[in-house]
Design brief:
Number of domains: 2
Pfam families: adh_short_C2
Enzyme class: oxidoreductase
Structural class: alpha/beta
Number of strands: 7
GO molecular function, one term: oxidoreductase activity
Keywords: Lipid metabolism, NAD, Oxidoreductase, Steroid metabolism
CATH topology of the largest domain: Rossmann fold
EC number: 1.1.1.-
Distance between the termini: 51 Å
Largest sheet: 7 strands, parallel
CATH superfamily of the largest domain: NAD(P)-binding Rossmann-like Domain
């Protein structure tokens, strides 16, 4: 039985941990050849050794346009084509108050989360045009569609990434290049621990507990993990999504949709208390359990 990505060549950035690592593994399992970039050289080389000819690795700083181009060139050198680009590299940043924001922090976040994706598209699109089409995916965030789902600068960058996705999708459509992004909700990855100063190993060790606690963060009582996003990426990369472009796919367990009603009354309890109304009696009168 064939995989959903049989014969396709994919470039994935930020592939040595978290969402990127899960995506590399899922893409390979579905039949793709993957060329992966990351700053974590030792981890990347270990993954390439483990997966053999299905995975090539290059140390890549996506804030450097030359590194992005070199990673894409590696895919062409190895496989002669490029079908999929997954702009996934990113990190969590401190949530600076507005009055504390500095130009260097702004530039770092925008270059890492926005400019890197744009330059990835810049260097990938000519090869995809030559191949007659392709799929470009970027990791955005629910922080880009709602307020207080993430740090300020991160949220601004992710909102811009969503709009860039939509804008570029229209420009690329005549070439049969689909451009989409994924908006994860609370996904248990090492990014949270690293944001608070933990090293990579310690941050990864905390992931199971984060996933357990994450089950209480949204209406769906399930903790999100990197595989949830990797599965979404496989869909967008595959021919199953041939008619899908310009979309910001939300994968968040219902986080941005709304909250589960509070069994203790929630806002209604506060309002009836202010009004001097007996909420339990009112519910009984109206047959509300």
């Amino acid at each position: 039985m064939g995989g959903r990505l049989d014969g396709k060549v994919a470039v994935i950035t930020g592939g040595a941990s978290g969402i990127g690592k899960a995506s590399v593994e899922r893409f390979i399992a579905e039949g793709a050849h993957v060329v992966m970039g990351d700053l974590e050289t030792a981890r990347g080389e270990a993954m390439a050794q483990f997966h053999g000819p299905k995975l090539a690795f290059r140390t890549t700083d996506v804030k450097n346009e030359a590194d992005i181009k070199a990673l894409i060139d590696l895919a062409i050198e190895r496989h002669g084509r490029l079908d999929i680009l997954f702009n996934n590299a990113g990190s969590a940043e401190p949530d600076y108050p507005v009055e504390k924001i500095e130009a260097g922090a702004f530039d770092h976040v925008m270059h890492l989360h926005l400019r890197a994706a744009l330059f990835g598209i810049k260097h990938a699109s000519p090869h995809m045009q030559a191949a007659g089409g392709g799929s470009i995916i970027s990791t955005s965030s629910v922080a880009g569609i709602g307020v207080n789902y993430g740090p300020l600068l991160y949220s601004i960058a992710k909102a811009a990434l969503i709009h860039m996705t939509k804008t570029v999708s229209v420009r690329m459509a005549p070439h049969k290049i689909r451009v989409n992004c994924i908006n994860p909700g609370l996904i248990a990855t090492a990014v949270f621990g690293r944001a608070f100063g933990l090293d990579q190993d310690a941050a990864e060790a905390a992931q199971p507990k984060l996933e357990e606690l994450g089950a209480f963060a949204q209406p769906l009582p399930v903790g999100g993990n990197p595989l949830d996003i990797a599965n979404a990426a496989v869909y967008l990369a595959s021919d199953e999504a041939r008619f899908v472009t310009g979309q910001a796919l939300v994968v968040d367990g219902g986080l941005t949709t709304g909250t589960v009603p509070d069994p203790n009354g929630g806002t209604a309890a506060i309002i009836t208390d202010i009004l001097g109304v007996d909420l339990a009696a009112w519910r009984a009168e109206h047959g509300i359990g």
